[in-house]
Structure formats: structure tokens, C-alpha cells
Amino acid sequence: MSKPVTSIKLVLLGEAAVGKSSIVLRFVSDDFSENKEPTIGAAFLTQRVNINDHTVKFEIWDTAGQERFASLAPMYYRNAQAALVVYDVTKPQSFIKARHWVKELHEQASKNIIIALVGNKVDIVDENEEERKVAREEAEKLAEEEGLLFFETSAKTGANINEVFMGIGEKIPLKGPEEEAQGSGLNVTDDQRVNLDSPGNADGPAGACSC
Amino acid sequence: MFYTHTEHSDTRVMRQFHTPPVNNPKFDSGIALKESYRPRGLSGLETLGEERGSAVVSHAKHARTESAASAASAASTSSATSTSSHNSDSASTSAAQLSPEEIEQCRQGITDLPTDLQRLIDVFIADLKQPKYVRPLTITQLSHLFQGFYTRFDKACFHYVSNGALSPAQQQQQPLPVPASASYFSARESLSTGLSGIFARSRSSSTVSVNNAATNTNGPRASRRSSSLFSMESASNSAGNLTQMLSPEEIKLHIRNNELNNVRIERYMVLCEERIFNKLLEVGISVSSPQIQPPLTPSSSSLDTHAKHPDVFNVASLFRNTPEFGNYDRLLSEKLRCLSKLSLDGKINLDEFLGVPAAGLSADGAASSADDIHRALNNFTHYSVSPHDKVQILLQIHDLMTYSKEMSNDEFLSLLIYYIVKFRPKRLFLNAEFVKLFRYKKKLVQKELYALTNMEAALMFIEGLTLSDFSDELRDELSAHDRKVLDTKVSSVVTLPSTSASWNSKASLPPATATHDSPTHANNNSRPPHTPMAGPDGTNTRSNSNEGFRNTFDGSLRNIIGKIRLYTPPTVNNLKPLPLPRSTSQLSMDYDGGSPIRQLASPTTTSSNDDDDDVTRMAGPVLTPSRSSNSSIPGSWKKFKDAKFDELKIEELREMFDLYQKLIE
Questions:
Q1: Per-residue pLDDT, B287
Q2: Which pTM does this prediction carry?
Q3: Which of B499, B512, B390, B516 is nearest to B141 (CA)?
Q4: 8 Å CB contact of B354 and A68
Q5: What whole-number distance in Å separates Cα of residue B589 and Cα of residue A43?
Q6: Closest CA relative to residue B329, chosen from B232, B246, B428
Q7: Torsions phi, psi for B664 (to 5 deg)
Q8: Contact criterion met (CB < 8 Å) for A75 and B453
Q9: For B491-522, what is each residue's pLDDT tens digit?
Q10: Going by DSSP bridges, is the β-strand pair A44-51/A5-14 parallel, antiparallel, or unpaired?
Q11: Widest CA span of chain A, in angstroms?
Q12: Which of B40, B62, B201 sits opposite A194 (nearest CB)?
């Protein structure tokens, strides 16, 4: 417990039914977790992970994947430090949508947001390679071009799930607790606190005799 | 105060260890304060304590949600179980960790705010009701005042808790298993002097740890350590620099106390919000002055019907100075009504349109949960008062909607929109905005923020619905009125004043006519330099110097209370300024600038700095009436501007006195 804790707001983007919530549920229910904290279904979860000397606390925000709600996404990824853009390796349309999300995040989200591109449902492909509709190379290319982390996962088998989050955790600049605090709204700015340097305070003792 | 000017080699060390070295006389309290007030330190105990605290707090919060929810879902129950099992695990590994029971007990032990803290709220409200602003405050500015107050209240709570100023009754309720807890508090009482107050301001709770040390380890070591902190002399005497490390046990106790204190502060903050808004409900928010008659928004016309109901809190009244919000809400309600009608007429299939999961509506007990959600939505808009309560209801709504632990936001959001359209709670938008603006920002995080964001997103979705979202057939069936309602987005008709931008940058307040008392204090530093700060009646001097005094010396809460005045009477005008050049102490006394006493004194003063001219210019327009009537002042009145007092001759002093006499006329 003596490790410093960095909390990270991570937002989940991706078409409906690509398995966003399954990935997260797999991640938080795995046993390497220490803390179980309150959730809102699978839509809001937190999870602590130890990475090197740090504890990273993921605050995972799910977004509604329906196309109809796409315009609402900025409300959710505001101030996020990390994003998981999920697609289904068996559904080409979901990959097209993923491209859109990546583009939008680069344009509108926080400057240094860390994005992981995640192709889910590889278990289906492992059973039958015919099912694959999104080539691994294609996704890798996108990831390289856009500077994304890339993983192919299976929420069903748990393959690569933890790696996604560990990968993000390692890329998070841990020196930035201040930025992080701002993101999650925990920030208490210095000027709200006592500042002995400010003139009003320095004059305190003299002010005492103003009566 | 005594430590602020020490060299920097020490302060660099201090940045690494936020817990002040108890017996280091060179300890720079100024730096330590700043460092410790960072929300998260870079390392060390500080971070640890904070983090543990926040974890505890969220446990407690969860427990509260659960007890509040009339029909707690299976999901939340199971997660609570896992929470407690986890905690008991860790409790067995470390004796210092708190069990959820202890935390719960501690939390429930606090049912009302201590009188001292209550008074802070009363003062704040009394101040809010003072007719002191030229223009009515916009909602953003109001929110800003509240947030500033919350922050200060938080600090006061921290003082209160860490000073151990608990009433006897509460002490009994505190299940402190530390054997020496009684002596802990008494030791605290006798030792807490002004200086300890300053230390206590640092969140590192050095005082707490010291007291743990004093009560738990025997012998001279502990007592010396504590005295070195609490008395200035021994602090400077103990130049031996014997740094003693805290034993693991002491650290555990330290953490434990931090946790308990965090729980208490959390609880106090909740009670604070409750009390403020209940009080506002009681006294109303109108300001007595006739010059401030804010225009009523259309939405507040329904206020009368609800006003008869004493328990109904109408947030619309808070928004009345910013009519955009009211208009927005009205248009949104109209759209909701229209959508709801279309849905009832079977012209649109809401379930299909929103992609509402079948399981969410057809599951067993869906009908009863719909009723519960209806009730909860009404509670949210009508029968809850404090922002904290409202946000808890939002969480409750999410709990009620949960039919499976695996629900993602695909389901939550569509269900939420579905229920909003179905039940059309009044003033939903204003209530959501109210929570956003008036819930203590530091606590509106994580789950709470998520639930609120969902609500906002749902409303934004509804707001943005236009005809193009529906089929062409529907368009032809619509009545002219409905078509008009659905023609445009609400946001394209009404532009809301940006509230989010001002969350970080301070919203500047309109110039005050009278005094800027405590609530605006947080803004003082960021105020634009040419805003007239001083009122013509000059009460500024008093309140501001009190501010300064308080900030530095409010070691004990009693001190704070003593210094806040409900409303400072404008006595300064009647005081005759001393006919002497100001001594340095006077100079610093009204350094806050712009006070009339300063205005009158500055022309004759022998001391001069740039600030003088600045201040004169700033307050000039305000004071013009009284000064322009005085035409007999010789043109030479500025001749002493650059003089030094020590070099003045009696003659010159006399001349100065004459000038003064004329000025005073």
C-alpha cells in the first residue's frame, strides 16, 4: 500500500456488441486485483493494478456504442488519459468505426491521450480462421500510423486482456499526478489552499490590530 | 511565521517528505504547507494517507447508497459483500486498517454538524443574502461562491477534526480502540497553540502523528518530539537535529487516524451541503435590496404551485438570474412532451428507436422497477434538496435500471433516455445542472460524476433530436406545432453560458457595492486589477484585514469564528485617520488596498511605492464624489510623496498636518 497511486480515466469506445464491457469485466474480475470498488454495472468500474513501483487505478468509463449516441461520446472522453478503441475482428464495419474513433480522439480528446486499439473476439478466429474479417496487418498498420498500442484479445478466454491494461499503465507518465488529478476532477488548485506568500496573509498579524 | 525565511536546502528535502520533521527547527512551514496541499504528493506518507482515505470514503459512500436505495439491486449487494470481505482480509494483515464496520460506525456517529461548523454555514448564507453586488450573480458566479465556500469549509472541517475538538457526546460515539485516545484528545487540547494550527493545516497531519507518538510510546523521546512541535522555543532549542523515525506502528496509527478523519470530513461535507440548501429553502434566496429584482424566467412561473409544498425545493429559483438555463429547460421539456406524446400515440417506437434492451423492460419486476424509477426521478427533481442527495438519487436510478451485472452503457444510456421520455420529470435539466454546479467539486468524481454525465448525455441526446432523426412518414403525420418543436435542436436556439470553462479559471464577480466578505475571498488574488474593490463606505479594510489575519492565524476554529463578522458595520468612515505618516504596521494593515483610510492617507504619506498610485487610480472613481467637493487642497499636496519620514522636519510635518486637515474636510 505504500506505493504511490496514479488514477487514470480510461474511456471505452467502439461499436455496440464488440465486447467492450466483456473486456472490462474480464479485466476487473481477474484475480490479480486487490481492490473491489463500487461500480455501475459494467458501465463504470475501477480497478487497481500494480505496475512496477506504482499502483495505477483505472477508472473505466464505458460509452454507449450505438451509432445514434456517437455524438455524446465527447462528454465521456473529456479529460480521459487513456482510451480503448475496441473492434470485433469478425466484423469489418466495427473496424471502420474504430478508425473514426481514433481520428476523433486525436482531434478532440486530451492532447496526450494514450489510445489502445483492441481487436476482440480472437477466440472465434482461432477456431476458424475463415471468420476473420479484419486482417491483423491492417490493424497493426493503423496502430503504427496513429501511434496506438495494439492488441488482439479474447474476453472469452481472457487472452491478452491484462496485457492491454498493463500496456496502457506502463505508458502513462507516472510523474503527472497533477494532470491526472485535473482529469478526474480531484484537483484542488493551489490558490484555494493557504498561500502564505500572498500579501493578504502576510499582513495578517498587523491586521489584528485594525480594531 | 517564524520559519518562513529559512534557506532552501531544507525545503528541497521537505518536498520529498511531506510529513514535517518534528524536531527540525529549520523546517520551512511555508513550503510544507504548499507542498502538502497538493492533492497528491509525489511520494511518501502524504499520498498514502490520501489514497487510503479516498478508498475508505468510497466504501462508505457505497454503503450509504445502498441504504438509501429502497430496492437495492443484487448487483450492488454482491459488490458490497466483496468489498467487505476484502477489507476484513486486509484488516487481519494489518491491525491499523479499519474495518468497514468501524468506518460505518464512525460515519453514523455523526448526525449533525458541530456548532462551530454550523456557524460557518450560517455566516455564509447571511453573507449571500447581503445586497452587496451591483448586478445579480449569475449561476456560474453563484456556483463559484459555493465552491469556494466548500473548499474553505473542507479546510475548517479538517482543522476541527484534527484538532480533536469533538464534543463529549461525539467522543463517546467514536469507537477509537486506541487505549490512550482520551489522553490523546486532552493532550491535543492543551497543546494546540497557534503554531500547531499552522502545522495542522498541512494535510500530512503531523500533529496527529505526533500525538500518537506521545500517547503510544512512553518515555522522554515522544514527549520531546511533541513539545518541539508545539512550542516555538523548544523548536529552536532542539538544534541538535535528532531526526527520529516513526515506528511502523506509529505510522499505522497515523494512517488509521487519517482514515477516520477523512470519513468524518466527508460526512461533514455532506451535512454541510444539506444544511446550506435546507437553510436556503427555509430563508429563500431573494436578496432584500429593492435594486436587485432579477427577472423571473418562464420556468419559474410554476414555482408558485410548488411553493405551497414546504418540502419542495425548486432549483429554478437559483437559476433565475441566468435565464438561458430556464429557457433551455423549458424548450427541452416541450420537446420531451412532444416525444412522449408521439410515443404514446404509437407514432414512434421508442424502444426500437433507442435500442432499448428487451431484457431491461421485459425482465421480471420491470413494471415495479419502472415505478421505482419514476419515483426516483421525481425525487431527483422535486423531493431532494442538497446536491449530494440528488447525486445519490442518480446513482440509485442507475441501480434500479441494473438488471444484470454485465450491463454496459449501451443499455444504461438507452434505458435512461427511455425513462426520461416516458416520465418527463419537470426541470430535469436544471436539476442536473444544479448538481453539476453545486456539488462539492472535489467529491463529484468517479461514480457520481459518471452517473451525472450519463444524465447529461441523455438530456443532450433528447435536446439534439430533430425531425431528421425520424422517418419521413412520421414527418408528414406531425401537427404543425410538433413539427416546430422538433424542428431544431434546443442548443441551437438557446446558447448556455459556458460553465465548464469557468471551472478552472475563476469567474470574475461583478463589482461589489459594499464589502467582499469571506465568500469572495478566494477570488481576491485573481481579481482584475482595475476592478474597484473598495466600497465607498470603506468596510473593506476591516473585512479584508480580518481575512488576512484569519488565513495566517486560524490555528483553532474558535479563532476563525471569532473573526468572521456577520456584516461589518461601516465604521471606518467615522474614524479619524491618525494625523501621522503611517508606520510600517499601518502600511501592512491596509495593504489590501483601496480602503478610504488609505486613500486619505496616501497623499500625505511619506512612504511611497508603485502600489500607491495603482490603488489611487483604482478606487478613485468610487471616491470621487467626496473628494471633488474639496477644492482647497494646495497643489503641493503631493510634495511629500518621495520624502522619508525620518528626514522630515517639524515644519514639514506641520505642513503635512495642515494638508491632512484640509483633506479631512
A1: 54
A2: 0.59
A3: B499
A4: yes
A5: 55
A6: B428
A7: -70, -25
A8: yes
A9: 777 777 765 443 333 444 444 444 344 333 33
A10: unpaired
A11: 87
A12: B201
Model pLDDT for residues B38-79, shown as the tens digit of each residue: 444 344 434 344 444 444 444 444 444 444 443 333 333 334
Residue B156 exposure: Cα atoms within 13 Å on the Cβ side: 24
Mean pLDDT score of chain A, rounded to an integer?
Answer: 78
DSSP B91-134: HHH-TTSPPHHHHHHHHHH--S--HHHHHHHHHHHHHHTS--BS
Interface test mutation site (partner A, options B450, B568, B578, max chain A beta carbons within 10 A) = B450
Check whether B317 has a pLDDT greater than 80. Answer: no
Which among A4, A21, A35 is the nearest to B86, CB-wise? A35
- Selection from B213, B161, B157, B215 nearest residue B186 by Cα: B215
What string of DSSP letters covers B321-335?
Answer: TSHHHHHHHHHHHHH
CA distance B176 to B285: 41
**Angstroms from B442 CA to nearest CA on chain A:** 5
What was the pLDDT predicted at B24?
A: 52
- A147: contact with B, CB 8 A cutoff: no
Residue type, B189: E
- Does A111 contact B at CB distance below 8 Å? no
- At residue B359, the pLDDT reads 67
| CB contacts, 8 Å: B542 with chain A | 210-211
**What length does chain A have?**
211
Cα B465 to Cα B339: distance, rounded to the nearest angstrom = 10
Question: What confidence score (pLDDT) does residue B534 get?
Answer: 38
Chain A closest-CA separation from residue B172 CA (Å): 30
Of B445, B504, B590, the CB nearest to A184: B445
Sort out which chain A residues have CB atoms less than 8 A from B444's CB and list them: 185
What are B239-253's pLDDT values in tens digits? 445 556 777 888 888
Residue A186 has pLDDT above 60, yes or no: no
Round to whole Å and give the CA distance between A165 and A173. 14
Neighbour tally for B289: CB within 10 Å: 13
pLDDT digits (tens, 9 = 90+) for B126-183: 887 777 777 777 888 888 888 888 888 888 888 888 776 444 444 444 444 434 333 3
CA distance B525 to B504: 14
B24: DSSP letter: -
Secondary structure class of A11 (helix, strand, coil) = strand
Burial class (CB in 10 A: 0-12, 13-18, 19+), B314: buried
Q: Do B25 and B235 touch, CB atoms closer than 8 A?
A: yes
Note whether A203 contacts B588, CB cutoff 8 Å: yes
pLDDT for position B37: 46
